[in-house]
Structure formats: C-alpha cells, structure tokens
Design a protein that fits this description.
The protein is 41% helix and 20% strand. It is α/β, with parallel strands linked by helices. The chain folds into 2 domains: 245 residues, P-loop containing nucleotide triphosphate hydrolases (Rossmann fold), CATH 3.40.50.300; 163 residues, Arc Repressor Mutant, subunit A (Orthogonal Bundle). A 6-stranded mixed sheet has the order 6-7-8-3-9-10, with helices on both faces. Strands 2-1-4-5 form a 4-stranded antiparallel sheet, with helices on one face. The longest helix has 18 residues. It is globular and about 75 Å long.
C-alpha cells in the first residue's frame, strides 16, 4: 500500500500555453509565425526561449505578456484565460524603451505609477531598486546621458521594481558590448539567487546558446518558419556555471546540433502553404521552396573557416571557438553557411568539411569562385531566386526592392535588409550577378568561362 500522506503534489504552473498559433496577414494571405506551441512556466525557474531569427521567440513572449493575442490557442494563468495585458508580468526590452524626457528615477517609477502606487511609496521602492541595480548617483540623469549598459540597468530596475510573478526579457543583452553584457548577466543571476526582488520566474528570449545555458534552468529550442518547439532541455547544473566544464560544453553542443538541423516542410501540415512562396513566384508564376534564412556570414569568414577546417580536420565547435578566442555563437553563422553550401557537415556538436568542402578550401581563387557559384545557386534559396528572376527578366535587371519586399513578408525590416546584404555579397563573389548600390538594382552576370 502506498503512503500518500508524505507525497507532495508538484506546484501548479504559473502559466500554461496551450496550442498557441500566431499568423500575420501579408499581401499573399497569411504568414504562420507560431504553430502549436505547448509550454508551461513553472514557479521559481528561469526559462530560455532559444532559436534563430524567424522562430517567433519575441512573438511568443508578447503573447505571454498579453501585448499580442494568439490567432488560436490560449495562455492560462492558473485556470483563467488571459484576455488582455498580463498584469503578472513585466518586460525588459532589447532596445531599452526608456522615455527620453524622464529622469532615471521617473523612468523606474513608471510601472509603479501605472499600478496606482502612491507617490511616497513609489519613490521609496524606486530608490531601493536603483540602489540594488547599481544606478546610485544617476537618479536625476536623463537616458541620453547614459551608456548602453546603464540604460539597460534602468530597464531592469523599471521591470523589477513592480515585482512581477514572471519577468520577461526580450534579448536584453544583445544591444550591449560583450563585456557589459557579461557583467549584467552575472549581476542578474546574483539578484535572482539572492531574492532581492519578489519574482517567481524569468522567461528570457535569446539566440545565444551559451547565454541560455548560463542563465536558464530549462531551455526551449524553437525551430523556424513556423516556430515550433523542437526540444526542451533541463540544465542540471548549479549556479554559477563553469563554462569550461564538460557538462556545460555538452549542453552547448547538443543544443547547437539541434539548432543546425535542417528544417523540412511538413507534408499536409497546418498552415495555408502560402508562406512558402518566394519572390520568384511573382517573377515566373512558379512557387519556390521556402526562403530559408541566409546565415549572416561574409564570404571571407566562410572561406577562412573552411581553410582552418581543411588544416585541422573535424573539430568540436566549442573547442574551435575557444582556440580562436571567440564565443561559440560568433562561429555559428560561418558554420551554418558552410553547411548550407554543402561544404561542411555538423554532427554531435562537431563540424568537418565534406569532400567538396575540402576541394573548395584547397582550390585556386578562380576554382573557389566557381564552386561557390554552383553551391550557392543549387543550395541557397535566396541566391537561386535572384538568379532565376534575373534570367526571366527581359532586361536582365531587377530592382532590389522587389526582393526586399518579398523578404519583409517573412522578416522584420532590418533582418530582411541583412538577408539582402548577404545575398549581394555571395552573388558578387560568385559572379552570379552584380549589384549597383546607387540604382539599388541587380544585374545578371554573363556566364562564367569554364
């Protein structure tokens, strides 16, 4: 007979996300950003939402905050469905989001004022938060007088001072230099560990694998186009975490290997399918494969990594990054680019060149260009789309705005432009097309002499 008197039920989740789907209207119909997200936020945990651009991480965070309603599914607080702004959360933004005409003290008090806290108590709470977050002496300063790190401290203080059940953070360190970001991460860990503020849980959005493993108790890895949870990792390491330990490196390698697996379209899966149309659908009437995001890597960076791997052989990504004095995430774009081009393979957190990649690294400049052109046209959807559209154009010229508008259906403006910039770099190098910045126009190159 089982003794149930000493068995304690697990605490109920603070919040539960059930079958969250979110789509946005586009000129072609609907673009599905999130598809079937099931997730809980447990009391006392730090949960990281990790994924590449296009995985819907920030959209999901805004659904939790009640700043955006899901297209279907529900966010539950206990057994109550969220139907507006979530008063049990506070958010820290990537871009600081401070009011420039208010002082540090006034910016920190904003959330308290919105919650109806009277003036004297508001001032006392804000002053305590300012002291704990390291802003002493800056109370009367305006945001324009502060460094990026100090402005983000104000953002932390403003969110922490209201002591929400769940603190939401949208890539809070990505706009900061490496040293400042590291300092603020460590201070945040200390504040949470010491219970300086009454906060139950933290949800942080990041694209940085090491940041997720450093901070989080659980890591939810999201795939892209549309965003779906690929896996949940329990990070079973005490704080502070040793980044050089085999356990830490093991988590990083596992997550990296999962993130770099190619996404394959679902056969008959949810969604209208219209989000799969690329700009060449308009150019020639044929629907293309999904415009898989280009890694934001330069040709020089790709060639440099290929040369290193040709010399050193298959390497663990974490060790290679350490040898080069880089963070793992600094290498991700180059590794992803080599993989997308078919020049490298990634397994179990290790990267090595394929046979064709070895040929690419050992070839002459001319041979490298020819191999890059063949791989880019055959393996990289955006480059292939630009080439096909130019080939179908009578003048062999097309304005970049045509492709930029198509990319903006899938990505925000800055990321769409970043994608186009990489496509320009890759196409110029491989001599598939030229680009005139003054005219903002692509032109088809004459065929290579083989």
């Amino acid at each position: 007979m089982t003794d149930t008197t000493s068995t304690q039920a697990a605490p109920a989740p603070l919040m539960t996300l059930q079958d969250i789907r979110k789509s946005f209207a586009t000129t072609d119909g609907e673009h599905l950003v999130l598809d079937g997200i099931d997730l809980t936020i447990e009391p006392g945990e730090v949960l990281a939402l990790l994924g590449k651009s296009g995985s819907g991480k920030s959209t999901l965070l805004r659904c939790i905050a009640g700043l955006m309603a899901p297209s279907s599914g529900e966010v539950l607080i206990g057994d109550r469905q969220l139907d507006g702004p979530n008063s049990q959360t506070a958010m820290v933004f990537q871009t600081f989001a401070l009011l420039p005409w208010l002082t540090v003290q006034q910016n920190v008090e904003l959330g308290l004022e919105a919650r109806g806290i009277e003036s004297k108590e508001r001032t006392q709470k804000a002053q305590r938060a300012i002291e704990l977050i390291g802003l002493d002496g800056f109370e009367d300063a305006f945001p324009k007088e502060l460094s990026g790190g100090m402005r983000q401290r104000v953002g932390f203080a403003r969110a922490l001072v209201v002591e929400p059940d769940v603190l939401l953070m949208d890539e809070p360190f990505s706009a900061l230099d490496v040293l400042t970001a590291e300092t603020l991460r460590n201070e945040l860990i200390e504040l949470i560990a010491n219970h300086e503020f009454t906060i139950s849980s933290v949800v942080i959005v990041t694209h940085n694998i090491e940041e997720a493993v450093v901070l989080a108790d659980r890591v939810a890895v999201l795939g892209s186009d549309p965003g779906r949870i690929k896996a949940l990792f329990d990070i079973e390491m005490p704080q502070p975490r040793d980044r050089d330990s085999a356990q830490f490196v093991g988590y990083v390698d596992q997550i990296y290997d999962l993130l770099t697996q190619r996404n394959h379209p679902d056969v008959g899966g949810g969604g209208s399918g219209k989000e799969q149309a690329g700009p060449d659908a308009d150019a020639g009437g044929d629907q293309s494969a999904s415009l898989t995001a280009l890694p934001l890597a330069s040709v020089d960076g790709i060639s440099g990594l290929a040369d290193i791997l040709a010399r050193e052989g298959t390497r663990t990504i974490a060790n290679l990054a350490d040898d080069l004095g880089l963070e793992v995430d600094d290498l991700l774009p180059q590794v992803e680019a080599l993989e997308q081009l078919g020049f490298a393979e990634v397994h179990g957190g290790r990267v090595g060149l394929t046979d064709i990649g070895t040929d690419f690294a050992g070839g002459s400049i001319r041979r490298e260009k020819l191999m890059f052109a063949e791989a880019a046209r055959g393996q990289v959807p955006l480059v292939a789309t630009i080439v096909r559209a130019l080939e179908r154009s009578k003048s062999k010229r097309i304005g970049a705005g045509f492709f930029r508008d198509a990319l903006k259906r899938r990505y925000n403006d800055s990321y769409a432009q970043a994608q186009l910039d990489v496509a320009v770099d890759w196409g110029r190098y491989s001599e598939l097309y030229t680009f005139d910045a003054d005219r903002d126009e692509f032109t088809l190159e004459e065929p290579h002499d083989h």
